[in-house]
């Protein structure tokens, strides 16, 4: 007999805080803590839960007893269906407040430290149209709008081009306007969707793994020049080439078009060949005085406007005089290394993605920077195999790891090297706090500052400064 799934109803939950991945923390009158979807801080709700995860009920809001005073009207017509934004209905001052609070409290709770300078969160200079890269998916399975569900309207057009609703990789919300990107990209995306239908190009079915139109990547710089990457699910038919030509001829600010054929089960294209169909090899962009070339598969900061403020902070905290040896760990395309390069005697940049290292070398050459040495490989593998032991010891370490944070072996390597300062850039407060705790054997946390890199989402970045102390 099948085991009955546990469920529970809650008549009164007060939403008191935000949590990771767009969820909220709720509290019952009995003091029980739950995780809630579909609410914002300040709401009082009724909800039901079908499962526990890590000891907490996962609740979905069903009825709002008292709406939060911080609620605002979301700008996007797709809000609530699309997985791109979670907090468009939360006042921006409160978004910043709760993100700032999350970073501070996580560092104290997980990092086990409290005696440090906590600096106010840095808001994003742009709240909308800040993304310079966006990837959209085609799917034969279109997510029904709330109006269609409520009225049982028949669907006149099957399939769609947009973003996935949370938890539904096989479906897409068929977007008309996404406010996170410049509006001309919305026009181009909508043109491509309609033109694909006219040319009878099949949309991809992620369950059957068949179909021609699979994904679409946009890149745009601050000159409003656009690079398009068409990802096809099979060999490109003549109609697919007609689509690319008509798109390029219709929109004059498209300066580059690439195509990729992806017949794999997963969507990653980093191991696939990108063929230039039209225009320039790269887009150009700058951060401060540093110029970058961005290719179809380049790793690059998505919110360039906020990146400039974050990098300026990193450079300031590193306090370089021109004599320092600097390690840039998890260096990507070397953007931080290049940004701080004028203040360093030499820089050692380490990155595990080969294509990113190739981009980094190209950008160093573009900027005439010759004192950066690049090493390719996973940080934890390089240190475990002692591949970095012959390198000179660093005076400053700048680290910008992925969401999982630094491997314990990497932390031990840094402790062994004993740099004077560590500047730790993080996109996950909990793993940053964990690593700060591990580094506390020899390092004191001096300062911590959050940056709102992605407004209206639960994502938050933070920059920590740690200094070496023998008697810590």
Provide the helix percentage. Answer: 10-25%
How does the overall form come out from the CA principal axes? globular
Instruction: Please state the structural category.
Output: alpha/beta
Q: Which blocks of ≥5 consecutive residues have pLDDT under 50?
A: none
Count of DSSP H/I helices = 10
C-alpha end-to-end distance: 59 Å
Total tally of structural domains: 3
Superfamily (CATH H level) name of the largest domain: Vaccinia Virus protein VP39
Q: What is the radius of gyration computed over CA atoms, rounded to a whole number of angstroms?
A: 24 Å
Task: Note the main sheet.
Answer: 8 strands, mixed
According to DSSP, the number of beta strands is 23
Second CATH tier, the architecture of the largest domain: 3-Layer(aba) Sandwich
| Beta-strand percent range | 25-35%
User: The CATH topology of the largest domain, please?
Assistant: Rossmann fold
For the residues shown, what is the average pLDDT? Answer: 92
Strand order of the largest sheet: 6-22-23-21-20-17-18-19
Task: Tell me about this structure.
The protein is α/β, with parallel strands linked by helices. The protein has three domains: 64 residues, Beta Barrel (OB fold (Dihydrolipoamide Acetyltransferase, E2P)), CATH 2.40.50; 200 residues, Rossmann fold; 155 residues, OB fold (Dihydrolipoamide Acetyltransferase, E2P) (Beta Barrel). Helices cover 25% and strands 31% of the residues. The chain contains ten helices and 23 strands. The strands form four sheets. Strands 6-22-23-21-20-17-18-19 form an eight-stranded mixed beta sheet, with helices on both faces. Strand 2 and strand 3 form a beta hairpin. Helix 1 packs parallel to helix 10 and helix 3 runs antiparallel to helix 4. The longest helix has 20 residues. The N and C termini lie far apart (59 Å). The mean pLDDT is 92.
């Amino acid at each position: 007999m099948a085991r009955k799934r546990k469920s529970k109803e809650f008549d009164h939950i007060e939403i008191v805080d935000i949590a990771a991945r767009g969820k909220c923390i709720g509290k019952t009158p009995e003091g029980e803590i739950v995780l809630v979807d579909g609410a914002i801080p300040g709401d009082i709700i009724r909800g039901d839960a079908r499962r526990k995860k890590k000891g907490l009920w996962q609740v979905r809001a069903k009825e709002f007893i008292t709406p939060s005073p911080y609620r605002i009207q979301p700008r996007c017509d797709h809000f609530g269906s699309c997985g791109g934004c979670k907090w468009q209905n939360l006042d921006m001052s409160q978004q910043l407040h709760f993100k700032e609070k999350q970073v501070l409290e996580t560092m104290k709770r997980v990092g086990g430290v409290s005696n440090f300078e906590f600096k106010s969160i840095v808001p994003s200079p742009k709240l909308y149209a800040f993304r310079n890269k966006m990837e959209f998916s085609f799917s034969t399975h279109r997510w029904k709008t709330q109006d269609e569900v409520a009225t049982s309207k028949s669907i006149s057009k099957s399939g769609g081009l947009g973003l996935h609703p949370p938890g539904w990789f096989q479906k897409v919300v068929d977007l008309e306007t996404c406010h996170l990107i410049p509006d001309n990209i919305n026009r181009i995306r909508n043109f491509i969707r309609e033109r694909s239908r006219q040319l009878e190009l099949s949309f991809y079915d992620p369950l059957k793994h068949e179909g021609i139109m699979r994904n679409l990547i946009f890149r745009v710089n601050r000159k409003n020049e656009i690079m398009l990457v068409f990802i096809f699910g099979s060999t490109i038919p003549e109609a697919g080439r007609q689509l690319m030509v008509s798109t390029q001829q219709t929109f004059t600010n498209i300066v580059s078009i690439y195509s990729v054929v992806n017949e794999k089960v997963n969507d990653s294209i980093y191991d696939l060949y990108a063929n230039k169909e039209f225009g320039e090899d790269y887009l150009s962009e700058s951060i401060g005085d540093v110029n970058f070339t961005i290719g179809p598969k380049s790793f690059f900061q998505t919110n360039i406007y906020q990146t400039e403020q974050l990098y300026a902070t990193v450079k300031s905290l590193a306090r370089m005089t021109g004599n320092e040896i600097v390690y840039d760990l998890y260096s990507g395309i070397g953007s931080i290394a290049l940004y701080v390069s004028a203040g360093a005697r030499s820089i050692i940049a380490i990155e595990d993605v080969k294509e990113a290292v190739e981009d980094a070398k190209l950008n160093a050459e573009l900027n005439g920077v010759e004192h950066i040495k690049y090493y390719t490989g996973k940080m934890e593998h390089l240190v475990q195999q002692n591949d970095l032991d012959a390198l000179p010891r660093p005076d400053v370490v700048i680290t910008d790891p992925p969401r999982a944070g630094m491997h314990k072996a990497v932390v031990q390597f840094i402790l062994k090297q004993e740099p004077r300062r560590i500047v730790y850039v993080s996109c996950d407060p909990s793993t940053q706090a964990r690593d700060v705790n591990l580094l506390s054997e020899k390092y004191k946390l001096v300062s911590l500052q959050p940056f709102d890199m992605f407004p209206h989402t639960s994502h938050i970045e933070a920059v920590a400064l740690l200094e070496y102390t023998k008697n810590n």
